[in-house]
Design goal:
The chain is mainly alpha-helical. The chain has helices at residues 11-22, 28-37, 55-64, 73-79, 82-104; strands at residues 8-10, 44-46, 50-54. Helices cover 59% and strands 10% of the residues. It has a 3-stranded antiparallel beta sheet with strand order 1-3-2. Helix 1 packs across helix 3 (55-64). The longest helix has 23 residues, at 82-104. It is elongated and about 50 Å long. The N and C termini lie far apart (62 Å).
């Protein structure tokens, strides 16, 4: 079934809607890249050129980007996929070694 619930928004308004309603970083550039990759909200093309988004599709996409509700950062980390968790740990270790290197110099 096609979605047509709520107002239709152009890319700039859609990005602002996501930022304002869900406090998630979102820009026209992010929506552009997500549209190319097929990872963004569903949209329609107008005149074969411009994308418009239904609020219902923006809501669904924004909610799908949220993690589970947790009470602590350690609980949040335990909810992450193993590859994502390892990437975060590696980034954290890299940041600590850079700070240690700077202190040693």
């Amino acid at each position: 079934m096609e979605s047509n619930t709520g107002a239709l928004r152009n890319s700039a308004d859609a990005a602002a809607y996501i930022r304002d309603k869900y406090a998630q970083p979102c820009s026209v550039n992010l929506l552009d890249k997500a549209a190319v990759a097929g990872t963004g909200p569903k949209f329609r093309k107008v005149s074969g050129r411009f994308r418009i988004y239904a609020e219902a599709d923006l809501n669904e996409w924004a909610l799908s980007r949220l993690g589970p509700l947790v009470r602590s950062t350690s609980e949040a980390d335990s909810q992450l996929e193993p590859k994502r968790l390892e990437a975060l740990h590696a980034h954290h270790r890299k940041g600590k070694s850079s700070a240690s290197d700077a202190e040693a110099a």
